[in-house]
Amino acid sequence: MEVFTKERLLQVHERISPYIHETPILTSRLINEIADCSIYFKCENFQKMGAFKMRGATNAILQLSQEDQKKGVVTHSSGNFAQALSLAAKSLGITAYIVMPSSAPQVKKDAVKTYGGIIIECPPTLKNREETAQKIVEEKGATFVHPSNDIEVILGQGTAALELLQKQPHLDLVITPIGGGGLIGGTALAVNLFAKSAKTIGAEPFEVDDAYRSLISGTIETNQSTNTIADGLKTQLGDQNFPIIQKHVEEIIRVTEEEIKNALKLIWERMKIIVEPSSAVALAAVLKEPAKFKNKQIGVIISGGNVDFNQIQL
């Protein structure tokens, strides 16, 4: 495993700071009363392009040589990372090729185009996505950037927790949702390096609990179905982030679809902010196990706010 130091993560933060927002940390007296603990929400729904993934995408691009930057970058994604890499590339004046499945919602394709990404459509299978991206690498000389299984991406995502800990150094626990593992991996590194005594906990829907099962089995598991409202958490862990998760994540709490919806409504109604369903998974975990969190100082990473209201039924 690579050596991760405080200095390295601080350098990443300094590198990307001109291109990202330092997002606010919000609290809710009512939610604290309901949960019987003090929760500090790091609101990456206010990040550029609406999600934490802007951090990792920016860092990955800035780590490329000028020669490689001129050739552009490529990823396969139909979600937030497609938008993040497109906007990060646009901010730095380089080309981003985005491989998207033909089944991707038009609203997501429109968002990528708005941020300057060049979309290449392919059949909706992982094999097709990977093959199409590889073809662009070979034809254009572009550098492939994985949405979550890339060390520079993981370190970039960890800067959200770093900012949280700089403002709230006495947290007992930091919780994030788990999809591809980039956010939880980066968060776990930041907590391990900078927290006084805090632990990192992951939150995951029962419907896509591959990370929970992976920690038990010791190998990366897959999901047979992805029937969850938390559409951003349908991806699986990779060989770069899984060892970090194994070493630094205390546990993973699984939540039901109903618990996710209830947490989502609570944030929308009581905090008056729009977050995507994946973001509500972390709060759902806190509410599910009140004894574990009672009277503690809790950091929750709100991962994003890109909601497709046509797809949500609460």
From TrEMBL:
Belongs to the serine/threonine dehydratase family. Its cofactor is pyridoxal 5'-phosphate. InterPro entries: TrpB-like_PALP (IPR001926), TrpB-like_PALP_sf (IPR036052). It comes from Zunongwangia profunda (strain DSM 18752 / CCTCC AB 206139 / SM-A87). One of its GO terms (biological process) is D-serine biosynthetic process. PANTHER family: SERINE / THREONINE RACEMASE FAMILY MEMBER, SERINE RACEMASE. This is Serine racemase. Pfam families: PALP (PF00291). The keyword Lyase applies. Residues 16-304 form the Tryptophan synthase beta chain-like PALP domain. The keyword Calcium does not apply. Keywords: Lyase, Pyridoxal phosphate. The lineage of its organism: Bacteria, Pseudomonadati, Bacteroidota, Flavobacteriia, Flavobacteriales. GO terms for molecular function: ATP binding; L-serine ammonia-lyase activity; magnesium ion binding; pyridoxal phosphate binding; serine racemase activity; threonine racemase activity. CDD domains: Thr-dehyd.
